[in-house]
Design brief:
The complex is a heterodimer.
Chain A: H1 3-14, E1 25-28, H2 32-35, E2 36-38, H3 42-48, H4 53-71, H5 73-84, H6 88-99, H7 106-117, H8 123-130, H9 142-170, H10 174-182, H11 187-212, H12 219-225, H13 231-234, H14 237-247, H15 251-279
Antiparallel strand pairs in A: 1-2
Helix pairs in contact in A: 3-15, 4-9, 5-9, 6-9, 7-12, 9-11, 11-15, 14-15
Chain B: H1 6-19, H2 51-54, E1 67-75, H3 86-95, E2 97-105, H4 109-118, E3 125-127, H5 133-141, H6 149-155, H7 157-165, H8 167-173, E4 186-187, E5 196-200, H9 201-206, H10 215-227, E6 239-242, H11 246-253, E7 267-270, E8 273-276, H12 281-295, H13 308-316, E9 320-325, E10 338-340, E11 365-367, H14 374-382, H15 387-395, E12 402-404, E13 410-412, H16 414-417, H17 423-427, E14 441-442, H18 453-462, H19 478-504, H20 512-521, H21 524-538
Helix pairs in contact in B: 5-19, 7-8, 12-19
The chains are: A mainly alpha, B alpha/beta.
InterPro entries (chain A): MetI-like (IPR000515), MetI-like_sf (IPR035906), UgpAE/MalFG_permease (IPR050809)
Organism (chain A): Paenibacillus antri
Keywords (chain A): Cell membrane, Membrane, Transmembrane, Transmembrane helix, Transport
């Protein structure tokens, strides 16, 4: 039985990795991968010395860090909130309302953002005007880009991501709550000392998985939200790879950048896993 | 829950790692061998190829027995499916050549084209594919695209005649290795090569002003458009100035600041010296002027974010005062309101407009090495460059989609011109030319659709201010082309981004020195040298 998944991995996951070598070659499709000239680290050199390198790295890393800081904890808080709610119907309603946005396609989400944040006609700016604040062209300001991007990400995904925590909370032994209650623990104390430790392993595992693609920020959404005015804050490694590799046909160069990106992801994954195994005694392997 | 299953997790990690990589699985050993380069002669002719008895050297049909060719084509928004196009269906009957179309929509076209080459899964020919000079050289020298000059001499009398009439075309499409890998569109009609300056005459009347002569007049007119409620609806909803995007706006106004677009780039040629003007003080002047307009809300505030479709809609709805567009088709319903005006005089007394060379679109057609009938393919495309064939290509079938006027020029039938879908979309159902970039021959006899009287008048307003000579984009050899491309990838992005910031005020003009410094760090001088060398060679 194990043969089928193994064959799948070899064929579709490891096999294509052989194409990785184009990052070290001057890839010419007519000559094929192995026939193209070997150029060593030339493509990497070009990237590291590019004018855009610093900005790309900073944007990629900072968007990831902000996501971890703000977007990661919110589903946990939401799950705790839902778990504490009394009425079944309200609980279901809140859960439904929060996870619905997950099913809207990225293109539509960005269209909605453009509509809502429009400085002339968007309702957000309309509301700002009502309270006497000058309208802001959110999508045309580099300083607003990350806020809008991560904020809308949270709105999109918090409900969906909270499901796994809710499931984990359901698995916490009810007797622990009973015992805590008898010992005189209040609601906050029960959350702190029973609920949170109960789902802690899940939190750590999801954190490790998140960090495993730390450098892969939501590429499609960024590309759709990008314009020449917010590029300062929205230019990330993945959009750069797309623009150079796919649009300009510079495959070797973008493969090198993609490889650089993946190596960082991989290193971070190994590091955080090792750290988690030592400190939290939870890890992927 | 302490540790997940080991095997799975390792593979998971590796799988994550590999996702960002482009997986290209072509191996030279498996891929088709590059076609032998035919040295100036016609490929596969006279050496016992199957084409000998099959092909007619003249007239129709082109082949005696039906053959089939696979063509990869770009499909612009107004185009219908290629296989249903009346013109191609008719042409199949005439030629005996059945085209199997792979028409890919604009959106995502660049990706598809690149992947096509990267995976070496080639069609027989590329049609309306926007092949860039770099692609022509890269894929030409590696044998994926075949050299066409021999085929042109033997099988393309119409194109050859045009190349002789306009010798500069041959120079602009010949690669440094002496081969022609792609065919351009040839537009001898001047109006097809300029962006007209359209002015809303109804609004001008309403605010009691004349068409602007100087850059100061422009500001005055635009201010009047903004404040004077020229459309008389009591609201400040007029957009004084707009265009497709900022590079388009810069290109349309740069002539008034003494800046030309030679060699397909932001280049002035003065006394045999190539000057890349993106760090020139005149460019700074232009950006300062645009910044003034933008900060006074005289430029469409959505200029940097709206799409081409939005812009077309704004033209059609008559929301614009002063704008730039090649033809009048987006606003035919209100063409009485608009007239083309001459470019304004800039602060240094310059009065110029930019235009494209006769070979306007590079790389509209190419034949690949897998094509078994290159001669027939060349004859197939050549017909469209004749007087008769070009009318057939752009107008379809006489009596069905067009009729000849008393003056001998074709005109679409009334049903097409009044179709509620709009002429562009209607014409795009039976011929591929709407949407641009077709391998076509556009002259004064076959262009009434893009050259109605108002466009002719608009072109006449521009004619006195066109540069004497317009140089096309040069063809670099592969190594140079790669270096130029590397330099331009960073520089162009930086210039466009900085221009947007200067114009909107996100970056103050105190930082101009820094901007120039960065450009020099990006090796602008080297880029300029490449263009200078290319210019010296064509001279």
């Amino acid at each position: 039985m194990l043969l089928i998944p193994m064959a799948w991995y070899i064929l579709f996951q490891y096999g294509p990795m052989y194409g990785l070598q184009i990052a070290f070659r001057d890839f010419n499709p007519a000559r094929g991968i192995t026939g193209s000239e070997w150029v060593g680290f030339e493509n990497f050199d070009r990237f590291f010395s590019s004018y855009y390198f610093g900005r790309l790295l900073w944007n990629t890393v900072s968007i990831s860090i902000y996501s971890l800081l703000f977007a990661f904890p919110i589903p946990i808080l939401l799950a705790l909130l839902i778990n504490e709610m009394k009425g079944e119907r309200y609980k279901k309603l809140l859960q439904n309302v929060t996870y619905m946005p997950h099913f809207i396609s990225v293109v539509v989400i960005v269209g909605m953002l453009q509509l809502f944040l429009n400085p002339q006609a968007g309702f957000v700016n309309f509301a700002l005007k009502e309270v006497g604040i000058e309208p802001v062209a959110f999508l045309e300001k580099a300083e607003w880009f990350k806020t809008v991007f991560i904020g809308s990400n949270i709105w999109q995904n918090m409900g969906w991501q909270s499901i796994i925590y809710i499931a984990a909370l359901a698995g916490v032994n009810p007797q622990l709550y009973e015992a805590a209650k008898i010992d005189g623990a209040g609601r906050w104390q029960r959350i702190r000392h029973v609920s949170l430790p109960g789902i802690f392993p899940i939190i750590v595992i999801l954190l490790i998985l998140d960090i495993g693609h730390f450098m892969n920020v939501g590429f499609e959404k960024i590309l759709l939200m990008q314009n020449s005015l917010n590029k300062d804050a929205s230019d990330v490694i993945q959009t750069f790879v797309y623009q150079n590799g796919i649009l300009q046909g510079d495959f070797s160069y973008s493969a090198a950048i993609g490889l650089f990106n993946s190596v960082i992801n991989f290193a971070l994954l190994v590091l955080i896993n090792r750290y988690a195994r030592k400190k939290a005694e939870t890890s992927l392997w | 829950m302490k540790t997940l299953q080991k095997g799975l997790s390792v593979s998971l990690a590796v799988a994550l790692m590999s996702t960002a990589l482009l997986a290209c699985n072509t191996d030279s050993a498996e891929g088709p061998e590059p076609a032998p380069q035919s040295e100036g002669g016609s490929a596969g002719n006279g050496d016992g190829s199957a084409e000998g008895e099959l092909l007619n050297k003249e007239g129709f049909p082109i082949v005696n027995e039906p053959i089939s060719l696979k063509m990869f084509a770009r499909k612009a928004p107004p185009n219908g499916p290629y296989e249903d196009m009346l013109m191609f269906k008719e042409y199949e009957k005439m030629t005996g050549i059945d085209i199997v179309w792979e028409d890919v929509p604009d959106e995502g076209f660049a990706e598809r084209k690149n992947l096509l080459f990267a995976s070496n899964e080639l069609p027989d020919a590329l049609y309306k594919a926007g092949i860039t000079p770099l692609e022509a050289i890269r894929y030409g020298s590696s044998g994926m695209l075949i050299p066409l000059e021999g085929l042109l001499d033997s099988y393309a009398p119409n194109i050859t005649a045009l190349l002789e009439q306009y010798p500069e075309i041959r120079a602009s499409i010949t690669a440094p290795d002496g081969h022609i890998y792609a065919l351009p569109a040839i537009l001898t009609l001047g109006a097809a090569r300029t962006n007209k300056h359209w002015m809303n005459m109804a609004w001008l009347d309403a605010v009691n002003l004349e068409a602007p002569e100087t850059h100061e007049d422009v500001v005055e007119v635009l201010r009047a458009f903004r404040d004077g409620d020229p459309n008389g609806n009591g609201q400040q909803d007029e957009i004084p100035l707009s265009t497709w995007n900022l590079p388009d706006l810069i290109n349309s106004m740069s002539g008034s600041f003494g800046l030309q677009t030679q060699m397909g780039y932001r280049i002035n040629i003065e006394g045999d010296k190539v000057d890349l003007w993106i760090e020139d003080d005149r460019f700074k002047q232009l950006l300062e002027f645009l910044h003034q307009l933008y900060s006074e809300k005289l430029i469409d505030q959505e200029l940097l974010t709206h799409t081409g479709a939005d812009y077309v809609a704004k033209m059609g709805e008559g929301k614009l005062g002063y704008f730039f567009n090649q033809a009048s088709d987006p606003f035919v319903n209100r063409k009485e309101d608009y007239a083309g005006i001459a470019p304004f005089v800039g602060p240094n007394g310059d009065r110029m407009v930019n235009g494209s060379p006769v070979a306007r679109d590079f790389g509209t057609f190419a034949i690949t090495s897998v094509n078994k009938y290159p001669e027939a393919t060349m004859r197939w495309i050549d017909y469209f460059f004749s007087e008769e064939g070009s009318i057939f290509m752009r107008y379809g079938i006489e009596g069905e989609t067009f009729d000849f006027q008393p003056d001998g020029k074709p005109e679409y039938t009334e049903a097409i011109l009044t179709d509620p879908r709009g002429t562009g979309v209607t014409i795009g159902q039976f011929t591929p030319w709407p949407g641009g970039g077709s391998p076509q021959y556009v002259n004064v006899n076959n262009a009434s659709a893009i050259n109605p009287p108002e466009v002719q008048a608009a072109q006449e307003a521009l004619d006195p201010y066109l540069p004497d000579k317009i140089y096309g984009a040069p063809m670099f050899d592969e190594q140079t082309a790669k270096e130029v491309n590397t330099l331009r990838q960073d520089i162009d992005a930086f210039v466009d981004e900085s221009a947007a910031k200067f114009v909107t005020g996100a970056l103050s003009f105190d930082k101009w020195g820094e901007y120039v410094g960065t450009l020099n760090k990006m090796n602008l001088e080297q880029l300029q040298k490449f263009y200078q060398d290319a210019y010296d060679k064509t001279k």
